[in-house]
Design brief:
With about 150 residues, the chain is of the alpha+beta class. It has helices at about 5-10, 60-85, 110-125, and strands at about 25-30, 35-40, 90-100, 130-135, 145-154. Strand 1 (about 25-30) and strand 2 form a beta hairpin. Helix 2 packs across helix 3. A five-stranded mixed sheet has the order 1-2-5-3-4. The chain has one domain (about 25-154): RutC-like (60s Ribosomal Protein L30, Chain: A, 2-Layer Sandwich).
Length: about 150
């Protein structure tokens, strides 16, 4: 099954990616490696209220996991725009996940599992990757999570 068919089968439709909100490029290639800049969980260009604030005092772990998945969907939109075809991805190399969290929060890996599990579901073995999950004091627009991705093309 093609990647976009797989996405459709699980109810995910890719749209046009949002423009950067800062002075950077959303995606950059160096050799076979492609870097996707940090993505926050925007939906149709806006940050849903359920994805604003700190885990776990303002945002539940489950909503933060969903936000992590949405960040990954946004990254796939950037990738599709750049490559014109998600089938060109040979493997995902690394995900860096930043979690806007309360000082006592310790379950950062659970939040970023939303992204990791989604990549495994859609890409199978190509979706296996290294990862870092970091708690931070704040993120752009008070987003609950931000994810950047490094992947390789054939």
């Amino acid at each position: 099954m093609m990647i976009e068919e797989k996405l459709a089968s699980i109810g995910v439709t890719l749209s046009n990616p949002t423009q950067p909100i800062g002075s950077y490029v959303p995606i950059l290639q160096s050799g076979k490696l492609i870097f996707v800049s940090g993505q926050i969980p925007l939906v149709a260009g806006s940050l849903p209220e359920k994805y604003v604030g700190k885990v776990s005092s303002q945002v539940s772990i489950n909503d933060a996991m969903d936000a992590s998945k949405q960040c990954t969907i946004n990254a796939l939109e950037q990738i599709r725009k750049y490559l014109n075809n998600l089938e060109k991805i040979s493997k995902f190399v690394k995900i860096s996940g930043y979690v806007n969290s309360d000082p006592s929060f310790k379950d950062h890996p659970k939040v970023i599992n939303g992204a990791s599990d989604f990549l495994l579901e859609v890409f199978g073995e190509k979706g296996r990757h290294t990862r870092v999950a970091i708690g931070v004091n704040s993120l752009p627009l008070d987003s609950v999570v931000e994810i950047d991705i490094l992947f390789e093309v054939a």
